């Protein structure tokens, strides 16, 4: 599950408990509900000058989909159905994060594997602890094919083809220092506390820019055309741009 707190203009979404934070349907729904609350509260407060930090308690950021829940269904066909259902449910969560009208920062406080790694890179920035933990796409090792939107997200966030190959076709586990050097994350920090503090500082700095949230989201989606298209996010129309310009009048 997750919790949500607000510190001034920064929202902090935390995956709670000391487990692996596996993304079961219940957990995915909990995160979506928190993001919906973030969006509504920021809109009610004027819709500009906000930021989101997502983090987790314990030694895992997220270990991906809840495979134990899938396997507990009692048959291979039921397990496959449950696994597929988590993929279907996770897709709109990716869309919600990429459409959120504010800067987003992931504070990766432990292992981030498979959908957990995807959850991290859905954010605009990634701060990660460097003393332990790794990022890892486990699909090849456990025999699960990638969904098209997964590959679109990875290509959008990891443009270097050699790094992309290491992650997708080699299943390489990568620590924070190496991930920062390869441009997968932004910065590695000495520990979990330092990663969260850095994420909150960055969020406060970005929120202080007082940007219009809907304009920020529009530019983000436009800068990520492949994953936006894979998720079915409609391209911006001229009417959309006119409406956004109307929001900008006070800034001009």
UniProtKB/TrEMBL annotation:
Functional pathway: Lipid metabolism; fatty acid beta-oxidation
Entry EC number(s): 5.3.3.8
Alphabetized GO MF terms: delta(3)-delta(2)-enoyl-CoA isomerase activity
Keyword Lipid metabolism: yes
Reactions accelerated catalytically: a (3Z)-enoyl-CoA = a 4-saturated (2E)-enoyl-CoA; a (3E)-enoyl-CoA = a 4-saturated (2E)-enoyl-CoA
CDD domains linked to this entry: crotonase-like
GO BP term (any one): fatty acid catabolic process
Keywords: Lipid metabolism
Gene3D superfamilies according to UniProt: 2-enoyl-CoA Hydratase, Chain A, domain 1
Protein's UniProt keywords contain Iron: no
Short name of one Pfam family: ECH_1
Protein family per UniProt: Belongs to the enoyl-CoA hydratase/isomerase family.
The name this protein goes by in its record: Delta(3)-Delta(2)-enoyl-CoA isomerase
Source organism phylogeny: Eukaryota, Viridiplantae, Streptophyta, Embryophyta, Tracheophyta
